[in-house]
UniProtKB/TrEMBL annotation, chains A, B:
Residue ranges constituting the HTH arsR-type domain according to the UniProt record: 1-88
Entry GO MF terms: DNA-binding transcription factor activity
One Pfam family recorded for the sequence: HTH_20
Entry protein name: ArsR family transcriptional regulator
Organism expressing this protein natively: Pseudaestuariivita atlantica
Length: 103, 103
DNA sequence: TAGATAGGATACCGATTGGTATCACGTCAA
DNA sequence: TTGACGTGATACCAATCGGTATCCTATCTA
């Protein structure tokens, strides 16, 4: 499930959409108003974001409310954590070595 | 500088290369050995990773040592932090509201 | 010095991507 | 009921992407 997420974040427009949704849920038309783009283009981006699990949609009448999904960010966070742990280990190994050098 | 970074992370092969480099610095030939891919293809991926600031290269004789660059991950981490802060605020606002409801 | 080794550069190919234009469908309101 | 409104869906286009093949340069070594 991590590939669709990273793929979704690769486009600057999609990252902008996510930041906009952070300020509040929005319909497609509302998002389109803030971009120099067709509604169809925005819709495509929203589909990619949805595939990546980063947003969810709630159908209300003829409208579709797009909402940020905090859980969708987990894959990225987890992936970063892998490297964080790796670097932490490297750092402790380094300080350990230094301590041994100066007993 | 954040767009090249996200772009670099969008490809699964490139993320694999990063994980491989976490176990130790490697030359292009060494990386190519572990993939079913041409050296030229790997080289392209390394260029994208370098553009994203995720790796650095040290020329040693006729070899090029590719090394992970921890600093390159900062843009992604910072970007995630934005949403973390946002959700934290939302959560505290919610708990505050609940506390007011039950004095 | 001659070959082998490690890598750079470029042209090319099929597939994917971001975008538009267009038409079709359900839903709301007068 | 009849439009207007909010979306979905599809066909199409230029540009980018991941990958290969090929040729070239620099460096090490026998």
């Amino acid at each position: 499930m991590t590939q669709p997420t990273f793929r979704a974040l690769a486009d600057p427009t999609r990252r902008d959409i996510l930041q906009m949704l952070a300020t509040g849920d929005m319909t497609i038309a509302q998002i389109t108003d803030r971009f120099d783009m067709t509604r169809a283009a925005v819709k495509k981006h929203l589909t990619v974001l949805s595939d990546g699990g980063l947003i969810t949609t709630e159908v209300r009448g003829r409208e579709r409310i797009n909402r940020l999904d905090p859980a969708g960010f987990a894959p990225v966070r987890d992936w970063l954590t892998f490297f964080d742990r790796f670097w932490d280990d490297r750092l402790t190994a380094l300080t350990d070595a230094i301590e041994k050098d100066q007993p």
